[in-house]
Amino acid sequence: MEVKLVLSRLKKLYNPKNVAGMARFGSKPKNAYGIAIPVLRKMAKGAGKDHGLALGLWDSGIHEARILASMVDEPEKVTSSQMDEWASGFDSWDVCDQVCMNLFGETGLAWKKVYEWAGRDEEFVKRAAFALIAVLAWHDKEAPDSEFEKFLPLIRREAADERNFVKKAVNWALRHIGKRNVALNVKAIAAAKGIARIDSKAARWIAADALRELQGAAVQKRLKEKRRKG
């Protein structure tokens, strides 16, 4: 499908009310059309997987076109340089998270990029590192616990970053590791208790929020049932 045709279709769906409403959720990207994610998913299904289309959509700089690009791209064709370029272009939490969930987490480079990006200064590049941890913890069913345990020092190291979109992603990563199974739940809770002792408002918030969920009855019940089922 031609890039120009898709961009034309997106432009026709422009919704100024939704664009204004995006700010209430902390998203203030440039060149936004205010198109809902379910609409973009429907468009992606119709377009099919197309790496060339994805690259063209991303290059447009349009907010929704970039999210759509992550939905139609082919993970096996994504390169390390493409991931770095796209991550450097993140200007909102929703593009960052959608790209990580829809595309980057499905590539064989995701694990490597966590370590490369976790110490970066750019807010959304760093967020992407921890968003990827959450995605991997949720979707990669075959990865051993040891690989997720290696992420816990990174989470502790960056827990003092006071920037809102970073601290929320660090928290997201910690919670998803702790919800993967009973053994990792114990490890994540211990990590959260250590983070709580860091002299940082962000760290204390990350720890308190993570402990509230990971020690909560709902998570504990689900993990015990999961262990019983094998």
Give a written overview of the molecule.
The protein is mainly α and 230 residues long. The chain folds into 2 domains: 1-73, no CATH class; 89-230, Leucine-rich Repeat Variant, CATH 1.25.10. The chain is 70% helix and 0% strand. It contains 15 helices and no strands. The protein has helices spanning 3-12, 16-22, 37-47, 51-59, 63-72, 80-88, 93-102, 110-117, 123-139, 145-149, 151-158, 164-178, 182-195, 201-214, 217-229. It is globular. The termini are far apart. 41% of the residues are buried. The model has no long low-confidence stretch (mean pLDDT 95).
CATH class of the largest domain: Mainly Alpha
Number of helices: 15
CATH architecture of the largest domain: Alpha Horseshoe
- How helical, in percent, are the residues? 55-70%
Low-pLDDT segments, ≥5 res:
none
**SS content category:** mainly alpha
Beta-strand segment tally: 0
**Proportion of strand residues:** under 5%
Question: Whole-number radius of gyration?
Answer: 18 Å
Query: CA-to-CA gap between the ends?
Result: 45 Å
In round numbers, the mean pLDDT is: 95
Q: Please give the domain count.
A: 2
CATH topology of the largest domain: Leucine-rich Repeat Variant
The main sheet comes to: none
The best one-word shape is globular
Order of helices and strands: HHHHHHHHHHHHHHH
What's the gist of this structure?
Helices cover 70% and strands 0% of the residues.
Topology:
Elements: H1 3-12, H2 16-22, H3 37-47, H4 51-59, H5 63-72, H6 80-88, H7 93-102, H8 110-117, H9 123-139, H10 145-149, H11 151-158, H12 164-178, H13 182-195, H14 201-214, H15 217-229
